[in-house]
Design a protein that fits this description.
The protein is of the alpha/beta class and about 180 residues long. Helices cover about 25% and strands about 30% of the residues. Strand 1 (about 10-15) and strand 2 form a beta hairpin.
Amino acid sequence: MPGVDVKLVLRSTRVVTPEGIRAAAVFVAGGEIEGVLPYDAVVPAGARVVDVGGDVVMPGLVDTHVHVNDPGRAEWEGFWTATRAAAAGGVTTLLDMPLNSLPPTTTVGNLRVKQDVARSKAHVDVGFWGGALPGNVKDLRPLYEAGVFGFKCFLSPSGVEEFPELDQEQLARSMAE
């Protein structure tokens, strides 16, 4: 049973759970789900109840391949617009690809630039991929330790000048790291 600090209860006749879709009440405290109980569960005193009828209540989606070109090319797509569009479609987390922004996410310093820009513009959670380029093998482990989710590289031209492809030897060194 959820604690007394529940501040919000969402009720729907269509809540998506691991067991399937069912009528339920989702109890929320501190921005986190405390429990998914029967639709008619007793609500703690003071909690706000929002009944969305037949609208679907479901976990947020994660989009693992997004090109947010911010900073440097935000006119293509920036964090402000990309994350608002994601939220409108039920996506609660984006993982940003390392190319197309200036600078590309190929060093910890460049990652910090991207994180700083995203922090003030993002409407959903944002994570980052790192990039493997010729000559940045030394940057891969620090990028991983700084929190990137994985690495992207190209074996043929990417179409972006600042994100060149790896040859077979460079790929092998990057993979070994």
